[in-house]
């Protein structure tokens, strides 16, 4: 892959002329005195240099910059990877734009607000957990508790300036066909100019296209060489799009992902999805790692244990993480931070749809994403069981997802309660071996007996969809205790169940994994979870990413995961 893609914060739509605004900013929060903060780390993180763990209702970032000479004469956009969760941006005292949503990117044309010499940018942020925004696993209490963790306030992904010609490309979508050995490309622009498209593999041109582009075009390129994107083999085609004076670098993977009957097929071959839950938390950075190398390191840890993918849980992950998945041939369920939303009313529906639309559009081209999972466990109000969910919320999100991307399977809501339609009937089960086996036996007969899988009275039921055990495990090993800090409420680490010694844990893991892999009706599983997070200590690694078990124990877990699945025979 070229160096421009390798270094860009949005590798699916990369340009050469960018200028990072990461680093030292000033910040004022909760009316306190001004202090320094290191961007792009949230206020709560140690890496930010602030590390304040209490509630932060508002904060204001500020810094100055001088526009680089090579960016002068073009349109200049100010770009944000993610800001939690309501942002208003000012450049030289004038409002440049704003955005609502903690996880999705936004950008604004600031050309006409810039001045010679020093420019001043301010970002006014409001972090609101009270009006039921999508907030994922961020704690709504003062401290972390249960499966809710340290909050993330403010800028937590990169900030940069990007210069583009007056007439430029605005979007690209790839529709690869492994069966046909071709790719359909859709491009959009803000004007009219000559378009040239090159597709390369290993530096060799394998497809070209040239035509006049007037705002939008769609064309299909047969590929001279066919290299499939497969599990563990992330072969990627590079794409160079030249539109007038604008040049955009992107890539795609040649793969087909679908369900046929009860099986998940990748390029027409049955593949059992051996997923592990990854929640994207880091001890010092909360939502943001100390370096991008930690993305690849977490993927490698999962692969070494025999997993071929991850369910990215209750958070929209950094595009750079997905880029690493693309390069590794690592399967992903693309999920959103749906917790925090009131499912018993449609009042939050519009806000959620807006954010989810931005998420799908941002990640559409990543070959690693094989399933969309917008919602998780929509059981109504967690603190008031009299407020049961409105099924129209679930049904509406599924319909919107399929309209945005008809090419991928969609789980309407992972773990229940399912709505009127889903492409996968998945379920969660943290019960012990005997109960899990009984329930899986019933599921193999089409008799679902999983907690909250369908809500009584809604008329929904299992209709023969492919099945996936998308959460199981969650076993705490060793019964460790943790030191109570400002950010953690409990003093005892917990899991859904526990094991007191390595042989007990690993033996149970082997037995359970091989049980699950033996069901022909199952298309995959997802083990909870890859690493501990704060007080929830049921990972296979510690929060600091240290192995919990001996080399022999980790090898036994790997071998159990790599057992051939009944669906793969």
UniProtKB/TrEMBL annotation:
Molecular function, one GO term:
hydrolase activity, hydrolyzing O-glycosyl compounds
Q: What is this protein called?
A: Beta-galactosidase
Q: State the PANTHER family in the record.
A: BETA-GALACTOSIDASE, HYDROLASE
Residue span(s) of domain Beta-mannosidase-like galactose-binding: 60-140
Quote the NCBIfam families the UniProt record gives.
rhamnoside_JR
Residue ranges annotated for the Glycoside hydrolase family 2 catalytic domain, each copy included: 353-443
InterPro entries recorded? Beta-gal/glucu_dom_sf, Beta-mannosidase-like_N2, Galactose-bd-like_sf, GH, GH2_Domain-Containing, Glyco_hydro_2_cat
